[in-house]
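Researcher: Here's my situation. A collaborator sent me these components and asked whether they could plausibly form a single complex. I don't have experimental data yet, so a predicted model of the whole assembly would be a useful starting point for our discussion.
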Amino acid sequence: MKQVRTRFAPSPTGFLHIGGLRTALYAWLYAKQNDGVFVLRVEDTDQGREVEGAKQVIYSTLRATGLTYDEGPDVGGDFGPYIQSERKQIYADHAQTLIDSRAAYRCFCTKERLADERRKAEKSGRNYTYDMHCLGLSEQDIQDKLTAGETFVVRQNIPKDGDTTYSDAVFGDITVPNSDLDDNVLLKTDGMPTYNLANVVDDHLMGITHVIRGVEYLSSTPKYNHLYRAFGWTLPRYIHLPVVMKDKQRKLSKRHGDASFDDFIKKGYLKEALLNYIALLGWSPGTDQEIFTLEGLTKAFSISGLSKSPAIFDTDKLTWMNAQYIRALSEADFIATAMPYFKECGADAFDLKLITQIMQPRLETLTEIPVKLAFLSKMPEFSQQMYFHKRMKTDAQTSLPVLKEALSLLTAHEDYSMEPLKEALMGLVEKLEIKNGQLLWPLRVAITGTQVTPGGAVEAACLLGKEETLNRLKASIAKNK
Ligand code: GLU
């Protein structure tokens, strides 16, 4: 059997879309599980849209997620160049081959003429397709126009009779009438190919056996097949993936900050969790298993588990999965992963092992860290309203005597580690004949200035240590008038 070769072919837009990353993942998995080759090809023929540094984003994201490529722009390979803008001559030669066999033709139509035709079609409620005006040009007409220096594009000459049936591993066999297929542009006036030409030429020349890509390319696939046939090439196996949606109506969008790999890393998700979650967007292992390493996915992945229906990106599910991954980290790995967030709020000056013990089991995203630990390095100004707790029936007034009792207890108490501290405070609760919360709620407010911290008053006092706890408590009591 021929060696499996898959590819990921992103356009350098400056960010890696979640849907793109999923395509890369599936293509990588399929190659790996078949001892095949995974190729990266950068599709930068739309140079007006090229963003500075965008290629680096692609390279670094694939490396960071472990989706390393065997061939690609910055690693080389026998089928390069792997950047489309460096393959211009290859496309020009192939376009010429198509022109020679009349599978394509030069089109000299001006922008104005095309716009006019489009307007007419729209006015009469027709779907616009090119009217093949230049298909009928004689050899002499063409030569005259070329001599006069008229610019032209190369269009595909699609047979207009009959049907084309094409086959996709996920969507099955699809038949379309050829008359529905537009004579699209293959080569633009600047000599750059369109996707229609470049994907066919490159997938063939790079020996791609399985084309895995988004469903948005499915309906154009019969056109690509006409090109394969015109060249006399074997068709690849097509695997089109369902679209990834934010909800039933909306796509994930850059504008909402929920479209790219980086967006989610910035929001405090671990790359391993994100990749695991993405694997399940449109693919099911056929079991209840949800947590997969990349290695596990390589074994479990199958084309037959892919779905046709749009996949909805469920952030709650991702968050749940992220928490599982955070929990599974060793203490050292958790500290290393969380360090930038500790530093952001000055928590790195505190007992990180203790912070880890308190936070790791409850954390869902890393970005919660600076929010929940900000109180450590700086006591925030807080309103006396914070003492109010409806169910505990506490407010600033009821809290004052309790806080004073707590102050004398905590002054006398020496061991500020968790268990002894907890025991001492529970002793006070008993002595005062109040509920736990009637002490712990106001105490946390008094020493942290906030109502949300990892753990409660005991954990906060433990992290702050005796001196700081007492200073804060005294200051808060003084303010509670
Ligand atoms: N450059 C195309 C995109 O980014 C790739 C499509 C494909 O995988 O063939 O959408």
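Model: Some features of this prediction you could bring to your collaborator: The pocket of glutamic acid is lined by residues 9-11, 43, 199, 213, 217 (CB under 6 Å). The first helix runs from residue 18 to 33.
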